[in-house]
Each structure stands twice: as C-alpha cells, then as structure tokens.
C-alpha cells in the first residue's frame, strides 16, 4: 500500500475494507485453535496493527502460549519462545560473540544471534527472570535493535514481544519494573474459560481431530501486509476535542493533577505518562477502523482505556490494604460525566 490520501474517498474505502477483511481473517484462523478469548485475541491482533507489544497475565493452563504461537503461525511470521528462569542470562536472549576459526584458520569473534531475532518473541513467564535479564528486552522493545559489546544489530521487521506472567505466584519471581511495563502497549488479563468453552476445549484437545492453521497472507509477504495495516492505523483522524478528552482522562488518573478524582488522589502514587496516552490513541484508532470509521470517537477511547493504562498506574499501600485495583480507578474515570 502506498501512502494513503484520506481525501481520496475511494482509496480510503478500499484501505478500510482491506484492513477489516485481513483483521477478520486473522481472528477466524486463530479461532481454529483457540476457544473463546475473543477479546484477548482482538487485543493482541490490535497491538500488532498498532506496532506494540503485549503483556498477557493469567494463571497457568489458560492457553497463553498456544495463543501466541497460533497468532505467529496465522500471520506467517518467524517465532521464538524464551522460557524465563532465574538463571537465564541476558546473552541467552540477545546472543553473544563467539570465538571461531574462519576459512583461513584465523580466529575471530562472530556474533551468534539469540532468540530475540525473530518477528514474534514469546517471553514466557517473564517475571521469573532477574531484573538484569528482563532489562535485556528494553532496547529491543523500544528501538527494535540489540547492542552487544560495541556493535548494534537491527532486529527483523516486524518485531513484537508477547510476554506472559502468572499473577498468583510470588515465590521466585521478580516484578517487572515500571519502565519496562510502560513499553507494553497493552496488558491483557486472560480469563478462565466458561463451562461451554471448557467443554469445547476438551472436545478439541482430547480426541483424534486436530486443526492446522494456515497463514492468511501470501508467503514472504506477511511483513508488507502487516506494514500496510499499521500505516492505515496512523491515518485515523483524531479531532482536537478528542485530544482534549484524552488529555483530561490521563490527568484524571494522575494524582498530582487538579483533575484527579478523589479515589485517584487517595490510592494512586503515579499516573500514566505520555507513552500511555500514545498507546491509548493507537488502540482506539484500531477500534475505529474495525467500525469502518476514519475518525476517532469517545467509545473507541472508552473501549481501549483499561487494556492500555491498567499497567501504567502505580498504586500506594492504602490501595492494597483496601483491595483497590488499577481497573477500579480506571472504571471510575471512564464512567465519570
């Protein structure tokens, strides 16, 4: 797709139609292996379209790893899985220099790529690794590159980190620092399946039948198709009044702001920063395109605010004592008149 002129109504209509069609095909293909979790699948695919990373939180056995593998297979992208453990080293993720003999018999250092060199990287149980190893992802997630010693290596494009973590186990875990959480466009909480969904899971996984996922894009062209979807997201128009609404929402979640609600002032230490506002806008733009609109609405913002801001609010001890969560504060602000 070439650069889109939003004044060309016909081209704009075709671009939105192609976006909707590709998005629907991805969801339908993933549904062959993933039962339920419609909102989670939509959130992950939306993040891909917005060129962002995703943090999936849920208890073990809900299919988080299978979901990531299914999306990579459906998109036709290269996939690598890293099991984060306390003894995992940064070089185990990024790669390292190895001393080898070349064809002439001379010894020299050669860079051996780590698993970070893939289009989709699954950081499984990311909170089990030490902060030093967790930080090895920071440059990759923000700059799409890796620096080892004095050399910088670009990562393959497109590049996404999809990380998982278990919220109920604290022993042997290292909570992600705020700077790293802020680099995830969305945090999605994976729910337990309903009784109907559980029955379907058992039917699919304990019998002889199996589903084979097929890439929705032509071979070797997945990157170009995804890049075109990412470009049209950027073309969604955000009016000045909508920018004012977004700024007011972010301010309402910032305890030091004059617009902060009483609950936010009581329970929050810090609110979301500019990266949080950017993530909210991009996720809302995807929602607008799925509704076949080129302009942002308030409903788009309301629908994306929890997923994009819940991991960016830092609460105080009083909130923990009273059982108040970030979702509670966001819900109050979202429904405020």
Describe this structure in words.
- This protein has 337 residues and is an alpha/beta fold.
- The protein folds into 2 domains: 1-86 and 115-205 and 220-235, Rossmann fold; 237-337, Magnesium chelatase subunit I, C-Terminal domain (Helicase, Ruva Protein, domain 3, Orthogonal Bundle).
- The protein has helices spanning 9-30, 38-49, 64-75, 90-94, 131-134, 138-143, 178-181, 195-205, 222-234, 240-252, 262-267, 274-290, 298-309, 317-322, 326-334; strands at residues 53-57, 79-83, 95-101, 107-113, 120-124, 145-148, 151-154, 160-165, 184-189, 268-270, 314-315.
- The strands form 4 sheets. It has a 5-stranded parallel β-sheet. It has a two-stranded antiparallel sheet with strand order 3-4. Strands 6-7 form a two-stranded antiparallel ribbon.
- β3 (95-101) and β4 (107-113) form a beta hairpin.
- The mean pLDDT is 87.
Helix-strand blueprint:
Layout: H1 9-30, H2 38-49, E1 53-57, H3 64-75, E2 79-83, H4 90-94, E3 95-101, E4 107-113, E5 120-124, H5 131-134, H6 138-143, E6 145-148, E7 151-154, E8 160-165, H7 178-181, E9 184-189, H8 195-205, H9 222-234, H10 240-252, H11 262-267, E10 268-270, H12 274-290, H13 298-309, E11 314-315, H14 317-322, H15 326-334
Parallel strand pairs: 1-8, 1-9, 2-5, 5-8
Antiparallel strand pairs: 3-4, 6-7, 10-11
């Amino acid at each position: 797709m070439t650069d889109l002129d939003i004044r060309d109504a016909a081209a704009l209509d075709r671009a939105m139609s192609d976006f909707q069609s590709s998005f629907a095909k991805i969801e339908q293909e993933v549904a062959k292996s993933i039962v339920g979790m419609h909102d989670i699948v939509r959130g992950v695919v939306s993040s891909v379209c917005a060129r962002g990373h995703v943090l999936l939180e849920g208890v073990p056995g809900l299919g988080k790893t299978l979901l990531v593998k299914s999306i990579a297979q459906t998109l036709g992208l290269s996939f690598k899985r890293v099991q984060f453990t306390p003894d995992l080293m940064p070089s185990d993720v990024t790669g390292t220099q190895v001393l080898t003999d070349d064809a002439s018999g001379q010894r020299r250092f050669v860079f051996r790529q780590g698993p970070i060199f893939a289009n989709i990287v699954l950081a499984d149980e990311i909170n089990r690794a030490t902060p030093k190893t967790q930080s090895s992802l920071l440059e990759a997630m923000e700059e799409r590159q890796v620096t080892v010693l004095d050399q910088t290596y670009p990562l393959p494009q497109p590049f996404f980190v999809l990380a998982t973590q278990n919220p109920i186990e604290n022993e042997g875990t290292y909570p992600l620092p705020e700077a790293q959480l802020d680099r995830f466009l969305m945090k999605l909480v994976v729910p337990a399946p309903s009784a109907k969904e559980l029955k379907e899971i058992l039917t699919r996984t304990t019998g002889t039948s199996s589903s084979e996922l097929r890439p929705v894009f032509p071979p070797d062209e997945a990157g170009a198709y995804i890049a075109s979807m990412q470009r049209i997201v950027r073309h969604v128009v955000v009016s000045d009044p909508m920018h004012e609404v977004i700024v007011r929402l972010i301010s309402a979640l910032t305890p030091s702001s004059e617009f902060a609600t009483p609950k936010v002032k009581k329970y929050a230490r810090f609110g979301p920063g500019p990266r949080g506002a950017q993530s909210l806008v991009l996720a809302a733009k995807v929602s607008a395109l799925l509704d076949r609109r080129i302009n942002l609405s308030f409903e788009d913002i309301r629908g994306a605010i929890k997923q994009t801001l819940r991991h960016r609010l830092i609460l105080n001890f009083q909130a923990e004592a009273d059982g108040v969560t970030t979702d509670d504060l966001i819900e109050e602000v979202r429904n405020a008149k």
